[in-house]
Design brief:
Number of helices of chain A: 5
CATH superfamily of chain A: Response regulator
Shape of chain B: rod-shaped
Number of strands of chain B: 6
Order of helices and strands of chain A: EHEHEHEHEH
Order of helices and strands of chain B: HHHEEEHEEEH
CATH class of chain A: Alpha Beta
Radius of gyration of chain A: 13 Å
Largest sheet of chain B: 6 strands, antiparallel
Strand content of chain B: 5-15%
Oligomer: heterodimer
Low-confidence stretches of chain B: none
Chain lengths: 125, 271
């Protein structure tokens, strides 16, 4: 089995670095960062990814729009999506999940929780 | 002739009877041999087993002693198993604690790394905001800077409300001013009042025991219940590192300005 690839779409460099730190504990994965929704769409369209971690509130293109575009594109619609956001309201969660996100995590994140969700969706041991 | 036939017939009968007798004798001999063997085996067993009541008693004592020894061993093994299970549970607990500690250290490292990654004051303020939103989970907060000459505290960056909405403070007076003067992070009731005159946490920004400002938090994200041990570590880290980052960025900005002024003079003199 080849190296699995994770895409982090997050505008905050601090948050991106924190997620990279947590996900680096997974063996055999490559982590790619995108700084906003548009950057994320470009990267996910040009390369293969096994999972995408997406923030909601971002400049240029927000996370919800990115999820909608990914789910409407045949080649991208099977990629598991984890939303990581400050928005903790249940309606925000429902909106993201109804658009096709697989998991919804709120900030501040727990590294163990992120790892467990990512491992589960990537079917890693 | 008929007499002769009768004699031969009787002879055949006799011969057949004799043969059956011989076969029967052979079978008896085989059975006899088998019984002898069985008897010898039983005698061997009888000889090796207890023969007298004393022998039986001795055998019983030995067996009871053996049972006692085995029961003791069983108890020891059970005790050891219990110890191993306890140790195992302690290791699992320790592992969880170390994992948590590791995660906390990663958070502190990332926050610290980001704070010192730039000398631009605006970027430093932006990074402080990111840390307070993403790592602490604050919803409404402001970064105050102190005017050392006048002792006034003014908000320079904020989240959850406009900068202008945050009241000005004065060093040593009011909740904010007193907390800044004390140069130690102060926590009040972590409710969600959103009263901009009463922060729930004030983290003074301190460089060499001198306050230069504060991070004042008024409410937390709805999914955040209260402050964890990590939050207090972050407050301590922010109090020192954010202050140093702001201080360094201001010095750099001042030195840049001075450098430009001097360069201007030099250009004026040389041209």
């Amino acid at each position: 089995m080849g190296q699995q690839r994770i895409l982090i779409v997050e505008d905050s460099p601090t948050m991106r670095q924190l997620l990279v730190f947590a996900l680096r504990r997974l063996k055999g994965v490559e982590i790619v960062e995108a700084q906003d929704g548009m950057d994320g769409l470009r990267k996910v369209s040009n390369d293969h990814f096994d999972i995408a971690l997406i923030d909601i509130n971002m400049p240029v293109m927000d996370g919800l729009k990115l999820i909608r575009l990914m789910r409407s594109e045949e080649s991208l619609k099977e990629i598991p999506i984890v939303v990581i956001t400050t928005e903790g309201a249940s309606e925000d969660r429902e909106r993201a999940l109804s658009l096709g996100a697989n998991e919804y995590l709120t900030k501040p994140i727990q590294a163990n929780r992120v790892l467990s969700v990512v491992k589960g969706l990537m079917k890693l041991s | 002739m008929s007499e002769e036939k009768k004699i031969f017939g009787r002879a055949d009968e006799f011969l057949a009877l004799f043969k059956r007798g011989a076969e029967f004798s052979k079978e008896l001999l085989v059975e006899n041999e088998r019984l002898r063997t069985e008897l010898a085996r039983l005698e061997d067993r009888q000889n090796s087993a207890a023969q007298t009541p004393e022998d039986w008693s001795k055998l019983r004592r030995e067996l009871l002693e053996r049972i006692r020894v085995l029961e003791r061993e069983c108890l020891n093994v059970r005790e050891r198993l219990g110890q191993v299970e306890t140790e195992n549970s302690q290791f699992a607990q320790r592992y969880v604690e170390i994992e948590e500690e590791n995660n906390n250290l990663a958070n502190l490292y990332v926050a610290s790394y980001q704070l010192h990654s730039t000398l631009d004051l605006d970027e430093v303020l932006k990074i402080i905001m990111e840390i307070v939103i993403n790592l602490v989970g604050a919803e409404v907060f402001a970064i105050y800077l102190l005017d050392e000459e006048s002792g006034a505290l003014g908000a320079v960056a904020a989240e959850g409300a406009a900068v202008a909405d945050f009241p000005k403070g004065r060093l040593g007076s009011g909740a904010l001013g007193k907390a800044v003067a004390a140069t130690e992070a102060t926590c009040w009731d972590p409710g969600q009042s959103k009263d901009l005159n009463q922060p729930i946490v004030c983290v003074p920004l301190v460089v060499q025991s001198r306050p230069i400002g504060a991070i004042s938090i008024y409410s937390l994200l709805q999914q955040k219940d209260g402050f964890s041990a990590l939050d207090h570590e972050l407050f301590n880290m922010l109090g020192g590192h954010a202050a140093t980052a702001i201080f360094a960025a201001r010095l750099y900005s001042q030195s840049e300005r001075k450098l430009n002024t001097i360069q201007g003079f030099i250009d004026l003199l040389t041209n």
